[in-house]
Design a protein that fits this description.
Layout lengths: L14 E2 L13 H11 L3 H7 L60 H4 L14 H5 L9 E6 L5 E4 H4 L6 E8 L4 E11 H8 L7 E6 L19 E5 H4 L5 E6 L2 E2 L9 E3 L12 E7 L6 H5 L23 E4 L5 E3 L7 H4 L13
Bound molecules: ligand MTE.
């Protein structure tokens, strides 16, 4: 896809000046910004997993940890950038990334923010929990099973999988349903490549994804906040869309455990929770598969979950969002700004009904 196919960037006029928080001088530190963002939406997803058992401060945002000390050293082939502290960089995820496509020129979110402000309920419900706890996840050996309605089902070791296709760097916006957003430089390859490899049959209509289930490694799975394992799904045409990515890296380095190592899904026009982490199974299926947040709160989360400023969440507005690192809110764009590429997938659908 050429540059001219890219969606328009959010303009500075999209920023809503009157949306300054009360006491904005207090918002100089990102930690406090995080806390307020989560509080403003009533605790967001955490509210559901804890059903009010934790107060707003339980998002953990007021207690940002330093980068986990156990992250490996910087790759010699990809020097750390200003926003990629050497201590944060990990071993090379990959061979050199292929040509960059689909990039946004918006400023990238700092690696420190991407890797310390997370939703990964297998490691706790607070935003800072995954960075603190996900070191217990063993990402090797790791296999991904691809099965279901396909001619060539297979189980592929992660080291083989990562080398099957040239890796690309893609800088995507990520809009969380909790009304915050980031700009993340992923490294991976298009999901459709692996789906084409297993040759879907004519019965394949959806793709179902499953996260590892191992309460020894994932302490959050010992509780019942979510029906474990975490599951997600896409319609086949969504999964085959070139924007849908399987990511192995961030900032050109191996993806940190807390961001979904060793392999996660990225679907930039949908709310961030569709981006299932630490995937062990990808199944081609005939019927719409269950998804974790829909199982937990069907009145709040449907199957499609396209970013849509016109359809409010029952507990907060989706019209605007706070980019992590910014003070002012900005207008949320339909399909997270990727409408030119994906709106045709939904042309006959009522997106209020199919939220
Ligand atoms: N995948 C699993 N397995 N478990 C989770 O709790 N959280 C989702 C999604 N993928 C989640 C998951 C949610 S709610 C969001 S917003 C994104 O991951 C957050 O990704 P990030 O922490 O890399 O920003």
């Amino acid at each position: 896809m050429s540059k001219s196919d890219l969606p328009p960037e959010p303009k500075s006029s999209d920023v809503t000046p009157e949306a300054l928080y009360d006491g904005r001088r207090e918002f100089i530190k990102n930690t406090i910004l995080y806390l307020t963002t989560a509080t403003a939406i009533g605790g967001g997803l955490t509210y559901l997993t804890t059903r009010g058992r934790l107060g707003p401060g339980a998002t953990g945002a007021s207690n940002q940890p330093p980068l986990p000390g156990d992250l490996p050293a910087a790759s010699p082939t990809t020097p750390p950038t200003e926003t990629t502290p050497a201590s944060a960089a990990t071993a090379p995820a990959t061979s050199a990334a292929a040509k960059v496509n689909y990039d946004t020129d918006e400023p990238r979110t700092a690696f420190n923010d991407i890797s310390t402000y997370n939703n990964f309920y297998e490691f706790g419900t607070a935003k800072s929990d995954p960075a603190r706890n996900a070191h217990t996840l063993k990402t090797k050996p790791w296999t991904v099973e691809i099965d279901g309605e396909c001619g060539k089902p297979q189980t592929i070791d992660i080291d083989t999988l990562i080398k099957l296709y040239p890796l690309e760097d893609r800088v995507y916006r990520m809009r969380c349903v909790e009304a915050w957003s980031m700009v993340i430089p992923w490294r991976g390859f298009e999901l459709r490549k692996i789906l084409e490899r297993v040759e879907p049959t004519s019965k394949a209509k959806f793709v179902a994804f499953t996260t590892l289930f191992d309460p020894d490694q994932m302490p959050g799975q010992r509780g019942h906040s979510i029906h474990w394992p975490y599951v997600e799904g896409l319609r086949l045409d969504e999964a085959m869309h070139p924007l849908s990515l399987l990511a192995f890296g961030i900032y050109g380095k191996t993806i940190p455990n807390q961001n979904g190592a060793p392999i996660r899904l990225v679907v930039p026009w949908k709310y961030g929770f569709k981006g299932i982490k630490s995937i062990v199974k990808i199944s081609l299926v005939e019927k719409m598969p269950p998804t974790s947040w829909n199982l937990l709160a069907p009145d709040e989360y449907g199957f499609f979950c396209n970013v849509n400023p016109d359809v409010d969440h029952p507990r907060w507005s989706q019209a605007s969002e706070r980019r992590i690192g910014d003070i002012l809110k900005r207008t949320t764009l339909k399909f997270n700004g990727y409408g030119e590429q994906v709106a045709h997938l939904y042309k006959d659908m009522d997106l209020v009904k199919f939220y």
